[in-house]
Amino acid sequence: MKLSMLRVFFLLHAFSVFALASNSVVNMSHYDLMRPDFVTMKSEGIVGVIHEATYPSFQRDSQYVLRQQAAARAGLLWGAYHYANGTDPIRQADHFLSVVSGAQALAGSSSQPPGVLLVLDFEKNEHGHYPGGTMRVDQAVAFVERIHERTGKYPGLYSGEYYLKQVLNSPKVSLAYKRVLLNCWLWIANYHYEPRATAPWSVWDLWQYCGDGKCDLPRSSFPKSIANITKAERNIFRGDRAALEAFWQGRAWQPGGEKRRRESERTLTADLEASGPAAKPALSETLR
Predict the structure, then answer these.
(1) Which of these, 188, 254, 154, 250, lies nearest to 25 by C-alpha position?
(2) In this structure, is residue 288 part of a structural domain?
(3) Is residue 287 included in any domain, yes or no?
(4) Residue 288: its pLDDT value, please?
């Protein structure tokens, strides 16, 4: 009975947040095998798409470039995330920015987004999902500081609520590390109820409530599909559409405007050839 009442409380609170929020962001990766209909997405209320750009070890998402161009032509805002592992965080950050800026350079004027919202996917990388192990907190700090150094923007930080609470509450995590991470905006996953454990952040900015069609919330208010994607990864922004557009534009990076450390094509090619095939996606509250 207590559990039922607790669930009712969380659902009622989720509905109150939903009434003041915008269910208008979709995230995607190469694991989404369909050809997404971005025009229909926009007509159904989607404002922005956040797509995987890079993942271990130094791989580029094969769908990133073409989908960026198609989404931009449809009038959608664009974001990119890097799925992290436990290897050199500076090298990961540089590779991520290289891929994002390279994709921007390939796009024509009609298929180039005005900026790219950057995200670090900071989650438990286990069971052979990707090689390289799990990124530590100190490595996440080094990654976001490197992004800020090169772009002038702090990325968003994505994680599952339970994992984030477990990791950041560790006595091994210093206040200095937490202060650095607080410069990042928070994107948090919970497929059962609105996230509450967001410390050291006071609130979440983006809530992933559905992934691969997994969602325990009422479908009438929390849809699982969008356009031609039946098992979508959908997200609620804390604010209305105008607030989301302002949030995105204020935090998006415009590639080409930073002091860039050049990565030679020889180095990038070696990275790609040295990395093995990605394993199957983990079935949990994660990006893919």
Answers:
(1) 188
(2) no
(3) no
(4) 66
Q: Is residue 270 one of the residues assigned to a domain? A: yes
Would 192 be classed as within a structural domain?
A: yes
Looking at residue 277, its pLDDT comes to: 41
Reported as a single tens digit per residue, the pLDDT across 72-104 is 999 999 999 999 999 999 999 999 999 999 999
Q: How far apart are CA 50 and CA 41, in angstroms?
A: 13
pLDDT tens-digit map of 219-246: 888 999 999 999 999 999 999 999 999 9
DSSP 106-142: HS-GGG--S-EEEEEE-----TTSSTT-PPPHHHHHH
Domain count, the chain: 1
β-strands 22-28, 233-237 pairing: antiparallel
Q: Say if residues 223 and 195 touch (Cβ distance below 8 Å).
A: no
**pLDDT of res. 120:** 98
Indicate which CATH number applies to the domain containing 253. Answer: 3.20.20.80
CB atoms within 10 A of CB 276: 10
Q: What's residue 258's pLDDT? A: 54
CB 248 within 8 A of CB 117: yes
Q: Which domain holds residue 120?
A: 2-274
pTM: 0.85
The upper half-sphere exposure of residue 200, i.e. CA atoms within 13 Å in the direction of its Cβ, equals: 16
Q: How many CA atoms lie within 13 A of 40 on its CB side?
A: 8
